[in-house]
Structures
1.
Amino acid sequence: MKRSAEYVERMRCRVNAGYRSTQVVRFQARVNVMGEADCWEWAGVRTMAGYGRMKWDGKPTYAHRLAYGLANGAMPPADLFVRHKCDNPPCCNPSHLLLGTHADNMHDASERKRGVGHPSAIPFSDVPNIRAYLSAGQPIVSTADIFGYNASAVRAVKYGIGYPMDIR
Ligand SMILES: [Zn+2]
């Protein structure tokens, strides 16, 4: 198991920023951190649907929400979902997670059911190219077609939702 040095460093910053360090350590111990692009699966308790769970501030909390919150400096608002670009419920790799609404979540689920071949996971390596197309005036929908992703994922790239604006 390879632990990404960057991830460990980021987590250390979160500890210093005031998250209760024992919780962060317990969280980290249950994430199988692999390579940058791989899924980092939760090794602790999972729900029936496969999502990781652990107690956070005394409350049972989804592991992927914690992963998103720790990586981004703030826990996601309760009314927003943390979605998996990789479609792998136990995954806690922050770069596979993005914020979305309930409608986005339903949309993901129906695309999956239809088996539409437009994945919603956009690797960070494609983000600069997609942004270049968009800033050259390409509409979201046609950019999505060109790159073979769905429009909601391209929209997330455009507005930096789950894709930091400084990715180059
Ligand atoms: Zn993943």
2.
Amino acid sequence: MTVTTPAVAPAGADVATLRVVGKQVQAEGVLTLDLAAPSGGRLRDWTPGSHVDLVLPNGLTRQYSLCGDRFDPTTYRVGVLLEPESRGGSAYVHRELAVGDVVGIGGPRNNFPLVPADTYLFVAGGIGITPLLPMVRQAEMLGADWRLLYGGRTRRSMAFLDELSAHGERVLVRPQDETGLLDLAGFLGGPRPGVRVYSCGPAPLLAAMEAACAEWPPYTLRTERFVAADGGAPARTAPFEVELARTGTTVTVDPGSTVLEALDRVGVEVLSSCRRGVCGTCETTVLAGRPDHRDALLDDDERAAGDCMYVCVSRSLDDRLVLDL
Ligand code: FES
């Protein structure tokens, strides 16, 4: 997964310095970077579905899913698609970043965790294979029943086919120029308990997945998005107040500001990175009031629970929110 973000480093984030120790072409327009501490020391643990903030030497920050071996304690691997509309992130990685260069790394964080299940159905579109690859390895290691449906523009544009070919019929490779659109209904089958469905890819694929899983039990489908959600207009246009429970401070959020900006103005630092509701860095616990969720991370049930919000984009339905800050 890659997410387009403003040209900012993760605000206040704990950013480690890593060195590029490998750069390999994996498919047409897709390469992997291997990153290690300059000392060669151990990196933070991570779990399938995790991503990191990559702070590039040109000042841009991008989020990429970790797709390497989670049991290699000294190396992170990320997959990077050269975006046709790149504004300096993926183009820089592809054309300028070299082995030996130093980058900043924030995280890892996991907004897309693999939860226990009897059966996993994975559906990847293009570079959306990157968060699913460690999940496939984990499911295989656990002896779980799993299958992967992997679509792409062309076979040449699809990364990691060699590794996936070792899994035989569990993996269905479906290049669009050979087989057309993915047969989601045929792959998923009918709703049944004990199944978890994980999908990552472009927005049309994820919309099709939501439609295909509409009759499945709640919580079955988990998705990871490339881009910010289109939340439409905020639910309210009037200002609202945010009370910070730990200090008793009250901050007014006007219609032209985000909660994050309002907090920043009064010197309250909340870690942030993408500032578009896609990376999960600014997750904040809600103690009272109903958030107007505008992120691309929470599912319907998590939104209904209303006990956390992403303050870079989400607002308030009520006059007052109380946050655990
Ligand atoms: S900073 Fe990325 S979700 Fe808020």
3.
Amino acid sequence: MRQRWVLAEQHPSEADALAKAARLPQVLAELLLARGITTGHAAFAFLNPDVDQLHDPFLMRGMDAAADRLEQAIAGREPILLYGDYDVDGTTAVVLLKTAIEMRGGIVRFHVPHRIREGYGLQASVLESACADGVRLVITVDTGMRAFSEAEAARRLGLDLIITDHHLPDAHDKLPHALAILNPNQPGCNYPEKSLCGAAIALKLAQAILERHAPSRTREKTLPSFLKMASIATIADAVPLRGENRVIAALGLKELRRPVGVGLRSLFAAAALDPASRQVTGFDIAFRIAPRINAAGRMDVASEVIELFTTRDAGRAQELAAKLERLNRERRDTEAFALRSIEERLDADDELRAESLLVLDGNGWHRGVIGILASRVVERTAKPAIVISIEDDIAHGSGRSIDGFPLLEAIETCADLFSRFGGHAFAVGFALPADRLPELKRRLRAHAAERLAAREPERVLHIHADLPLDRITPVLAGWLRKLEPLGHGNPEPVFVARRARLLAPVRIMKERHIRLDLAHDSANGNSRKAEGMRAVGWDMAFRAAELGLAQGSLVDVAYRVRENDHPDYGGIEIEIAGLEPASA
Ligand SMILES: [Mn+2]
């Protein structure tokens, strides 16, 4: 498939000014400008996250009322129900708030709905039974922003409801009835950070009740330990890692180096990560820790995640971590099995493969993985994809999209067919009676064909800056490390070096990968013996052959900077992200 390079707009004069003001390499200034950082002060703050950069929780609308009511419940030893969501964000939010409330002497119960049996969101039946058990205060985390009828049920039952959520209010900005709503996205909230995840909002409430009680101890001791959980959620929930989110993520990851509770320790051990010997990165959390936590909610019951992170019993923690490990393996197998059948279908069916929007349905595909499957199909085909699982005559679907094809809009054209649907431009979920599937497919395909017909599927490679190979130094690598944690909103930089020369023949590894020895082709030719930069290209053997690369060839290379700690090949190298014939 074609790869299209998109070079970010460069701002040489602003970058020059910022580089001087903040004493940074020019290329780093360029990367910071792309993150909205324009002053030396802001650059310093970005590169040196600190607990003092966390905002005052009472800047959030509703925080005073929420903290007052919560403290009253703690003081009166009223049982408090925490109601979470089943993903990483929701479960870590419960853990965080439960721990904080119990530190202050409160009594906590919690409920996390079962993804398949109960589904997403607040359930009136759970409120009823909590009420019967003597609960008078319910706090939602990572959910509730559109729970209008359930909030009404809470009111009828005489329950006080505090909603903490980061999801957008409904299209008319209508809010559910509640004692307080904590959500920077609600109208009238002036909290400076709008893109907190659910667990980070729970963290702000925890911070509020702890800081009121013991301000300095909270900042120095208590808060940092809570940042571990909040950082895992912040990275897993894919909120942009800038502003307060970056502070939470960076400090939380740093905290993981210290001895942590038995739950986290068991989970890291199960994922073969040792935070004490190597700094845990955003990628470790996103690709190794979060999937294990999410496996509980996808394949079974998420409430065990909460037990894992709150137990003090090392044996029990190991048992639960082992169970997550098993569920994650099960999730991977389930996913691989369905993906194979999807690929076979695409291989066999030319007509299906030619569609601009791929709609794939199967009987009994596990509903916990259809969203992941849709993402995989998008990765492989560069087309929007919807994966549907049919169960008891109901079709449950999950879709993912590409740039320039807003999927929710597509779904909305079929609103009359669904029993429920929701989502945003890049991801949707829905359910409908299975006998309406042919109609749904027909209409979605027609809609997509109209909008995507002329488009050849392509993979876009975003390139952030020009960086000739001779400018890659250990000092620069050190600066690039200061951009960690990387992730959404703070992507790993991709650079381009123009007219790089191959100093040696292409080395093929395992028939698929390549190693190149590249050098910046300086104006004075090869008068000086050029020092080569080691480059590795995973799955690039085909591309190298296509371009006919040989010793002496000139190429434009898109790359990421890598530091390798291999005893023989240690040092800086580059990982090739794309190769093109040398530009003139
Ligand atoms: Mn969330």
4.
Amino acid sequence: MRPNPRYGLAMIPQPPNPGARFSPVLLLSLLCSAQIALFHKKLDAIEHIRAPRTFANTVLPLEKAVTEFHHRYTPEIQVSVDDCERAANDENAADFANPTLYAALLKVSPPAKPIDATLTNVWLTTMKRSGATLTPQQRRDLLQNKHVLSRIIDIYNAQAVVSMYEHMAHILGYATWADFVLADRVAKNPMRVEKFLQTSIDLFKPAADAQYQQLKDAFAASQGRRKRAMQPQDVAHAEELLAKRNSVDETQVRQWFPAGATHAKIYSLLAGLFGLSIAPNGEGFTVVDSASKRRLGFAPIPIVQDTTLTQAEIVAAFHTSCDSLRTLLAATPYETLNEHVPADFADAPGEMCEGFAWDATALRQIASDNAAGQPIPDDVINKIVASRSLYNTYEMQQRLKDAQAGGALYVYAPLWARVYADDLFTAFSSGNALDPAIGARFRATILAPAGSLDPDTEVQNFLGRPLSPDAFYKEFTP
Ligand SMILES: [Zn+2]
């Protein structure tokens, strides 16, 4: 058993009776094969159209078939058949690399609507990146590699896996796998990513050094007369001491943030900002567009262990709530465009919303009276806001450590998204952070167009100027 990469940690259920000839898993496998065959038939039909190629007879049916294929199961059975998932991936890999289908897409006469032209282009890019323009020999080689990689259960042979990815990159015409992956992201190429990380580390160094000195001082102060120098194993303890001295006392602060009420207030704050209304519904909220009264979907509340929230949990709650709303507020007519957001921009709205967790007005709005019936005092709010730079320093230090240790390609994306997030938040932080006019503009220019526009264009449309990394770099130089 292994985690299913597409559906998180869901495991493959075992048949209740291994000797039985007919198990639920077998039934699902049959259903799965039938769905794959049906999908294949639909694409085949698109391939064999005689009429002149149009958006309506070629791109639209492709979009529909793929969307339906992705929704082929109810959530309950979606997670249950791992073999099916692999077979479906093989089917997708082969179909998206299909040169006849690609040639058909190329022949589509230019659609009248820009959004339809965008969708056509996204499909052309996807198919090209899947190998549709390769020679038959190269394509077989590529698909064989994908097939093997999707079935590798352990990664003990990491070097072999790495060379398979590099080999696929070469087949597709890229120098490295990193070049291939980044070509479809905002970051564009490994050199830009490395330069970005290096600049961040250079700028961060003085702040990190100053913080290390503070840690040493805090540790020394706790040592009384013995004056033992701080050792690596003492750092965690020193961090605790420093946090207690510099930041707010968590146990004191959380009395104004009961979990249930705070989550509800965070959602209603965001709803007010983005022109939505929400109604409690089980473990979350039904989200409705205030203007059109249209139901947009369901936003779950994060699961928390405790009955009150720490500041870190409030930050996380703003982030995940915005992640949920981002999905509901993507408003292009095509699922592919709603979802085709580059991986290094997708988290920018969630990251941006973390900013509200440090805004005095927002904090006052999401706080509740404590058990004694007292509202949160202003000096507690001020202390929370003032503790942000320490929180950021810790967080950034950790992220940069991850980025260096884990290979820049896979870990830079959250940092890159943070650059966008910090710049986007300047629109809110420069005036009244909860101004619904700015929220509406954010929804219209960033969330609604989702993957139908280049992220840099969306940022330009929202801010009225190109992206600037200044707000991000300011975090490193308090
Ligand atoms: Zn997120």
